[in-house]
């Protein structure tokens, strides 16, 4: 049974930081590219960051470049999203995504940036 379980979301003040985690099971994690997406109320889901199966070259949405960092630990079947200098416009549900032929999604974790 494939599972992607996100954690680490919550309420944070503008300028603060959060670290999201996504633990994968039920498939060969090390062969999948991993991504983080987000969806704000009334908006379409958008790609935030992506990391290839073996790590290395990463991609980011322009809106988060220089503030967010995606990383992975294949030994722990886990992908992370370090989010710094958070802004109110980063408020969204953040989803973990795995893709290599098949595509899998997590259930999402809420991030709210507000004073």
Structure description:
With 115 residues, this protein is mainly beta. 0% of the residues lie in helices and 53% in strands. It contains no helices and 11 strands. The strands form 2 sheets. Strands 2, 4, 5, 6, 9, 10 and 11 form a 7-stranded mixed β-sheet that branches. The protein is globular.
List the helices and strands and how they pair.
Elements: E1 3-7, E2 10-12, E3 18-25, E4 33-39, E5 46-51, E6 59-60, E7 68-73, E8 78-83, E9 92-100, E10 102-105, E11 109-113
Parallel strand pairs: 2-11
Antiparallel strand pairs: 1-3, 3-8, 4-5, 4-9, 5-6, 7-8, 9-10, 9-11
- Overall average pLDDT: 96
The number of E-state strands comes to: 11
The count of helical stretches stands at 0
- Strand proportion: over 45%
Distance between the termini: 40 Å
- What is the makeup of the main sheet? 7 strands, mixed
Enumerate the spans where pLDDT stays under 50 for 5 or more consecutive residues: none
Shape: globular
Radius of gyration: 13 Å
Structural class per helix/strand content? Answer: mainly beta
Indicate the percent of residues in helices. Answer: under 10%
Order of SSEs: EEEEEEEEEEE
Concise account of the structure shown:
With 115 residues, this protein is mainly beta.
Quick tags:
single chain; 115 residues; mainly beta; four-stranded antiparallel beta sheet; 11 strands; 0% helix; globular
